[in-house]
Specification:
This protein is of the alpha/beta class. The protein has 9 helices and 11 strands.
């Protein structure tokens, strides 16, 4: 993973991706009761979702691979049951142990920063081991079926009073990775931050296959956090396993 990209945008992250309470509601509604549940948030960024979930879960452990994101999360969130840590998502089983966590949340397209099916399967297996018997793995990525099949080369531009964030894809025929090219403009200063990272555009069918290989038997695919039907035209892919 190229974390210099996230380090460069950490200061402006709350303007680019403000808290989405629909995400929090989706997590909370996935359980009959949360007050006695321990949650792990993977790819937590600056911790806004983690902080929101800490209001309803017994404890929240939030990890990110980027030090700047973790430091910003620590500076903005001081709650006794909320713990931030710089950690690779492929080290969760060693760090948290077996049968330790009730919910693992991996939103914000974090999953596709892994570099292929071997790492995805490793992560799913570690998640299965780390979760308690009735635990859930909740995922959200971009629907790459749509990106690949419709040859889409851009995501909708994010723009508000503070920033403009342009996101483009470069698909290379025959290659497993794609280039994610971003241009962030800070409106007040006119400063421009341009980056390019590689992502693994995993299809929904491959996620299903890998989840089954990892031991997940029951799972649902949705087209958004409102749990609407997943279709070839859905922009995100949301997964709830149990």
């Amino acid at each position: 993973m190229n974390m210099s990209f996230y380090e460069s945008i950490a200061e402006y992250y709350h303007h680019i991706f403000p808290l989405n309470k629909t995400q929090a509601s989706f997590v909370q509604e996935s359980f009959d009761e949360t007050r006695q549940k321990d949650l792990l948030d993977i790819g937590c960024g600056i911790g806004e979702l983690s902080s929101e979930l800490s209001k309803s879960f017994k404890s929240v452990h939030a990890i990110d691979l980027d030090e700047a994101m973790i430091q910003k999360a620590l500076s903005g969130n001081q709650t006794a049951n909320l713990h931030f840590q710089k950690l690779n998502m492929l080290e969760i089983e060693r760090t948290f142990g077996a049968d330790a966590i009730d919910a693992i949340v991996c939103f914000g397209n974090t999953l596709v920063h892994l570099d292929g099916p071997e790492q995805l399967l490793d992560f799913f297996k570690q998640s299965k081991a780390t979760l308690k018997n009735d635990g859930k793995l909740l995922l959200q990525i971009i629907n790459y079926d749509r990106i690949i099949d419709q040859n889409i080369n851009a995501l909708p531009t994010i723009e508000n009073d503070y920033i403009r964030f342009v996101r483009n894809y470069d698909l290379h025929q025959g290659q497993k990775m794609l280039d994610f090219h971003t241009i962030l403009t800070i409106k007040k200063s006119g400063h421009i931050i341009e980056n390019k990272i590689q992502l693994y555009p995993v299809r929904s069918s491959e996620i299903k296959h890998l989840l089954m290989q990892a031991g997940f038997i029951n799972f649902e695919f949705y087209g958004n956090f409102k749990q609407e039907k997943f279709t070839k035209n859905s922009i995100p892919l949301v997964v709830n396993t149990n």
